[in-house]
Amino acid sequence: MTHDYAASYERNFGFFKDYSREAVFLDHVFKTFGTDVERVIDIACGPGSHIVELARMGYRAAAADIDPAMLARTQGAAAEHGMTIDTHVADMRNFRLSGRFDAALNMFYSFQNVLFAPQQQIGFFQGVAALLRPGGLFVIELLPEENNLRLYPPGESFVTHRAVEEDGSTLTVTSTSRIVDETRKDIVFLYETVLPDGSFEHEELISPIRRVYLPQFEALCAAAGLVQVAAFGACDSDVPFTDDSAKLVAVLEKA
């Protein structure tokens, strides 16, 4: 792992996601719960993996991120397919963008990775709502704290990924959550690699997470005039959200 976050993002986190499959899910959501969804913006887009897939499906795509290097990667990925994507440098902590969209995305728990102050959270939800036309959709992915405390007790380690790399090495990733205070916890990812010669490498990455309980999330939606119209336990239309779901993929509609 490197200190260049944009360059290392896919190396560190790419294996957690099947972007093509998730884009199919998002397309299903837009067609099932939306009306005439054409213009879509991905907020905190990272390297643009979701929005590029949606652009390939024919959506008029835009992307926002605080990191210009991430936006450059998004534009580069789009250019490889002969497309252009409007990009905007934007900070979720003081979220202000102009424009009007039929749908917005905020995926991979970035809401919880970035926004720790209550006013920042409310401001972000209200800022997203301001971008949407009436009836527009907001799809957000988060980790509901009450479910995760039960499914992944703090202090216990869980294997989240194991695979043989192209060079023959074996990578194992484990995660352990540590409670910091009432509002924050850290998820510690340990990357352990067994090289082909039998030697070991290991690195640690700490991801801060804002602890968000479902009633808090519902209050944020209400404050922004967003109504939940569907809830999934994964980026899969066949997986409903339940008490045993580690993640919530919520589909919100602007009233």
Describe the protein.
This protein is of the alpha/beta class. It folds into two domains: 5-144 and 212-254, Vaccinia Virus protein VP39 (Rossmann fold, 3-Layer(aba) Sandwich); 147-210, Single Sheet (S-adenosyl-L-methionine-dependent methyltransferases). It contains eight helices and eleven strands. It has helices spanning 5-13, 19-33, 49-56, 68-79, 110-114, 118-131, 145-151, 214-223; strands at residues 39-43, 60-65, 86-89, 101-106, 132-142, 157-164, 170-179, 184-194, 200-210, 226-232, 248-254. The strands form two sheets. A seven-stranded mixed beta sheet has the order 3-2-1-4-5-11-10, sandwiched between helices. Strands 6-7-8-9 form a four-stranded antiparallel beta sheet. Helix 3 (49-56) links the parallel strand 1 (39-43) and strand 2. Helix 2 (19-33) packs across helix 3 (49-56). The chain is globular. It starts with a helix and ends with a strand. The mean pLDDT is 94.
Question: What percent of residues are in strands?
Answer: 25-35%
Given the helix and strand composition, which structural class is it?
Answer: alpha/beta
N- and C-termini, Cα separation: 43 Å
Strand order within the widest sheet?
Answer: 3-2-1-4-5-11-10
Write the layout of secondary structure elements.
Layout: H1 5-13, H2 19-33, E1 39-43, H3 49-56, E2 60-65, H4 68-79, E3 86-89, E4 101-106, H5 110-114, H6 118-131, E5 132-142, H7 145-151, E6 157-164, E7 170-179, E8 184-194, E9 200-210, H8 214-223, E10 226-232, E11 248-254
Helix pairs in contact: 2-3
InterPro entries: Methyltransf_25, SAM-dependent_MTases_sf
Keywords: Methyltransferase, Transferase
Domain Methyltransferase: 40-136
